[in-house]
C-alpha cells in the first residue's frame, strides 16, 4: 500500500541551514578565528499532509539534524519552517507550544529514548498528562495506546529493559501518539532492530498513516523500505537535497550520481531487498504481541 497525501503541504522547509562551530584548542582560540560547518545546507522541501515522506542518505548526510529541526529540538541557523503556511518562528509562544505537541518524534535507539527507571505505564502517563488528559481518563487512554501499537496492556508493569527491541520501539511510538500528533518524524526507527522485527514496525507505521491520517517523515538508510511505503522521497548528501520526487522516478531513473551510488550499494537491488510480500500486521500477528516476548 502506498499512502495518498492530500497534496497540500502540512510542513514546508525553505532554505534551511544549520551551522555548528568547530572546537578549537587553547592556542587556536588565540591565533585562529572560529570556523563553522554546515550540517544542513539550504534544504527546501514540502511534505504533503497525510503522506509518508522518505528522507534517505548515508550516515553524516544531515538527515538526523534535519529531523531535529523539524521537531524543533534544534533551531536552524537560517531559513524558514512553515506549518500550514505559517512561519513557526513568528507564531505566538502559546501557539508554538501547542504546535510542539502536533509534531512528535520516534527515535532510533530504543534503549536511550526511554527512561530505564520508569515503568511503561509511567512513561505513557507523563506524555498524556503533558497533553492535558485527566487522571480519570488516564487508564483508558493508556490502554488504548497500547492496543493501538499492538502491545498487551500487561506490559505496562514492566521496565524498558524487560521488553524486546520491537516492543520498546512500539512503546516509543505509543508515547509519541499520546500527544495526538499530526506529524510523526521517525528517525531510522528500525535500524537497531532485528530483521524479523523491522517489517512489523514498518507495517505499524503504515497502519497508523492509513487509519489516523498521520503524516510520517521516515528517515532511513534502507532504500527498499522507502520504495515500498513512501509516496515521495528526498535524497540527502552533505547537508543538501540532491534529488526528490516519487520513488518510482527517483529510484528507477535517478538523475543524480549520488542516488545511483546508493542504489548500486544494495546487494540484491531494491526489488530484491524489499519485503513487499510481507503480510499486514493484523494478518501476521495476534491482537497483541505475547507479553513474554
Structural overview:
This protein is 37% helix and 23% strand. With 293 residues, it is of the alpha/beta class. It has a single domain, classed as 3-Layer(aba) Sandwich (Rossmann fold), CATH 3.40.50.300. The strands form two sheets. A six-stranded mixed beta sheet has the order 6-7-8-3-9-10, sandwiched between helices. Helix 7 (195-212) links the parallel strand 7 and strand 8. Helix 6 packs parallel to helix 7. The chain is globular, with a radius of gyration of 20 Å.
- CATH-assigned fold name: Rossmann fold
* Beta-strand residue percentage: 15-25%
**What structural category arises from helix and sheet content?**
alpha/beta
Order of neighbouring strands in the sheet with most strands: 6-7-8-3-9-10
The share of residues in helices is 25-40%
The number of helical runs is 12
At the fourth level of CATH, the homologous superfamily is P-loop containing nucleotide triphosphate hydrolases
Number of beta strands: 10
Q: Any idea of the CATH class?
A: Alpha Beta
The parts where pLDDT drops under 50 for at least 5 residues are: 272-293
Apparent shape: globular
How many domain modules? Answer: 1
**Largest beta-sheet characterization:** 6 strands, mixed
Query: What oligomerization state is this entry in?
Result: single chain
Mean pLDDT: 86
Separation of termini? 28 Å
The run of helices and strands is EHEEHEEHEHHHEHEHEEHHHH
Known CATH architecture: 3-Layer(aba) Sandwich
